[in-house]
């Protein structure tokens, strides 16, 4: 049985992270810590309780909520645009068809609308839920500012140009992350999100080739051959599109530094994982995080703050949706 690590204390991170956040992201000055202290004091508790309940029933929930945040923030900023339903919305794009965690967000929103109607944005719920999901999976407990407002635009055509592909090189990812105000260090740190979650076979089938007998063979020599054999068993050539594989084969439901240890063992699930070890610009950070979980957790706190502050809408921008799947109009 996997041993759950003790969550990294928020008190260790809080002072450093707050100072870092204000210096690095002045454009998010309208966000504030404890934004709902007066208007809806139990807001963060209600989100946390919803995430805890859902995670206790389904251990895949934390990974789904964390992925949902990435897909929200990288497209239109952290404004819950990924939650909107309808023809041609972000959820229509094939890259988002496998997203999950929507029901958890909707559950939290329903509770908040009962106690604090029209007050807490869906964008804040997505960010808080991902923050709590990481902690509940054994990761660092951090504080993040709130005050995001919900966006009004959601277009499928905006998804692909703004989401990293699993075949990306370091240069490809660096360019994308830089466009979001994230550094190369942030790229390596936030890639650690792959320590939880799962992927469909199609996300890494480029590392294999089907032979004349209909069997897969390994063509990506950067991948550990034993691990590759396990993947081919889980995802044979004719595997159902619904089949998924855990991102981290060792501690699948724990947020820890095992992802980086996997990279050192050439067991990164995606090409975009493996290249972090092969590139001189990112290799040292991978090694450092593999050897020091505290270092990874401290960096995670800083990079997560930056992630959740990408192109946020505040003040008079956007709205506070009554339902996360539709705009108020």
From TrEMBL:
Coiled coil: none annotated. It is found in: Secreted. Keywords: Calcium, Disulfide bond, Heme, Hydrogen peroxide, Iron, Metal-binding, Oxidoreductase, Peroxidase, Secreted. One of its GO terms (molecular function) is metal ion binding. Its EC number is 1.11.1.7. This is Peroxidase. It is an enzyme of class 1 (oxidoreductase).
């Amino acid at each position: 049985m996997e041993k759950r690590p003790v969550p990294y204390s928020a008190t260790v991170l809080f002072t450093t992270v707050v100072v870092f956040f204000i210096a690095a992201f002045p454009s998010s000055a309208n966000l504030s810590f404890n934004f709902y202290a007066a208007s809806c004091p139990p807001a963060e508790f209600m989100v946390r309780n919803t995430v805890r309940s859902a995670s206790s029933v389904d251990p895949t929930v934390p990974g789904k909520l964390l992925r949902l945040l990435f897909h929200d923030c990288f497209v239109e900023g952290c404004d819950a645009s990924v939650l909107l339903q309808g023809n041609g919305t972000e959820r229509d794009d094939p890259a988002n068809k496998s997203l999950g965690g929507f029901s958890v967000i909707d559950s939290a929103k329903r509770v908040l609308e009962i106690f604090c109607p029209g007050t807490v944005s869906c964008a804040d719920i997505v960010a808080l839920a991902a923050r709590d999901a990481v902690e509940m999976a054994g990761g660092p407990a951090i504080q993040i500012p709130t005050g995001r407002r919900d966006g009004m635009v959601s277009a499928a055509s905006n998804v692909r140009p703004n989401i990293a592909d699993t075949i990306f090189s370091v240069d490809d990812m660096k360019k994308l992350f830089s466009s979001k105000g994230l550094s190369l260090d942030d790229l390596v740190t936030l890639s650690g999100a792959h320590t939880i979650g799962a992927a469909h076979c199609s996300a890494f089938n480029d590392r294999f080739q089907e032979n004349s007998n209909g069997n897969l063979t390994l063509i990506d020599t950067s991948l550990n051959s034993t691990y590759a054999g396990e993947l081919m068993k889980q995802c044979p050539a004719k595997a159902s599109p619904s089949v998924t594989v855990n991102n981290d084969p060792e501690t699948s439901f724990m947020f820890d530094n095992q992802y980086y240890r996997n990279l050192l063992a050439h067991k990164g699930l995606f090409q975009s994982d493996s290249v972090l070890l092969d590139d001189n610009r990112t290799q040292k950070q991978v090694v450092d995080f593999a050897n020091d979980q505290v270092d990874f957790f401290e960096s995670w706190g800083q990079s997560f703050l930056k992630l959740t502050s990408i192109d946020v809408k505040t003040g008079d921008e956007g709205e506070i949706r009554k339902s996360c799947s539709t705009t108020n109009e």
